[in-house]
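Sorry to interrupt, but I need a hand with the structure work. Could you add the entry underneath, on a fresh line?
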Amino acid sequence: MARNKYNVDETLESKFDLSQLVRSLVYVKRYKGFFIKAFCFSTVSIICGLLLPLFTKNAIDVYIPNKAIKSLVFAGIAIIITVIIQAICNKLRSRSTARAGQAIIRDIRRDLFVHLQELPFDYFDSRPHGKILVRVINYVNSVSDFLTNGMINLLLEGLSLILIAGFMLYLHPGLSLIIFAGIPIFVVYLFSIKKIQRRVWQIQANKQSNYTAYLAESINGERVTQSFAREEFNSGINNDLSLTAKKAFVTACAVNHTIWPVTLLLTKITTYALYIIGVLYYRESLEVGVIIAMASYASRFWQPIQNISTNYNQLINTVSYLERIFQLMDEPVTVTDEPDAFELGEIRGDVKFDDVVFEYEKDRPILKHVSFHAAPGESIALVGPTGAGKSTIVNLVSRFYNIKSGCVLIDDKDIAKATLRSIRSQMGIMLQDTFIFSGTIMENIRYGRLDATDEECIAAAKQVYADEFIRKLPDGYETQVNERGDMLSAGQRQLLSFARTLLSDPKILILDEATSSIDTNTELLVQEGIKQLLKNRTSFIVAHRISTIKGCDRIMYISDGKIAESGSHDELMEQKGLYYQLYMSQLTNE
């Protein structure tokens, strides 16, 4: 069961935990050179910006009254040079943070992807894939933006605030206190909306996650959607989710944007107070240039305060995203190599199930004390009703899941104690839903063995009767196919899968409904190829069509998680039990 659907919010209710941010700094440290450069460039830019009001003050109070034209010209040139230096530093800072940000995104996504490759199937079975995608794409983007620009901005805005305060105190300590008087008011307001800010951005993240999950599900199910004429209904769901995400974003922005009017109001109030008190109390001793410079610094003083409050809100959201990212990274890899796992070596294909009990959900067993032995080279068919445990058995042979009790042996070795690579590298697995990768036909076949030559790939295709249809394609083996191979028929995709598996030369072969999508005429051709494929290989064939498994050495009828019947086709027909009833029902339907 999925933990949630596209219309169920992922909760982000955990308390603010700064340790998550500290943990993420491992990615920042890798690129500290970029951050040092960005900080230096930004510091120079800030200092340049703070020098401009001093140039203006000197021009008004000294150069203009004294008609010092030469000094005024030099002041103008100094202003121009300062602005140019500031622009260059800002550009270099942006370049450094952009490079660091993209490098951090790459590293986090690489670590997430590597971990996803190792997670067991039950992780992907239990949640919408779109919500996994959100963590790898959206959340990583948000985190990267803060780890680069956000953290540097927090440091720079703090530095800028200190420098501005220093310049103001240098010019006029008394007037500076007037501007500082607005800080307590702003702090009280900021803390009053902190919880609201965190909440509305959590809601926005949830709604965006829901929309992405539904979008991913819809793209994967587009054929079904059109088959059942669900376009209009699904568009309604999409519009509702999109509108909900939009409203959540607008609400979050509305709360965030209340900071700007408050800082603007405080800027205006303190500036007017500066003018009034300056005229009333410092009329005789105050120069016009000082008031103008102080007013300029007053507007600059509140800008970093506003930015710090915005960055603090971003910090809170970033920690929430980091919790989800690290939650994925910390997801236990339950199906993995034991610390002392051994290499299985080249296997003969002797497979034993010894009293195996397996369950996907606690206390709901799918397999109940299953035991059987498959000799090397023996072909075993698994039949029975849907949900009886047929596919589960073949999944356990490949150790895609851990069993609850009992053991699965290959060549009398417990595969739970062997390395996964040494097991799976000697198996060929073909499923009903064959996955075709974007690329050429040749590349898709070669996926079975990456060092195979073109001739070997073509030979494999010929053996399973795929060569004929491939050569009829526009560019033959170099024909480009898209993801999932939509330009190919279901039968053609299966034939490519056969060629891919044959090329890998597995010692144990698993066919899980592998011929269900092939029409009768194609199936007759493929049967000959499968016969070649089964030679000298232990094989497990899950099928509903009796015609595809009649020739197997042994047929096991699986019912309610147990082996109800076992024997050859003729032996089971003589018993006139469950297999006999299945065969006769298919014969009647035909």
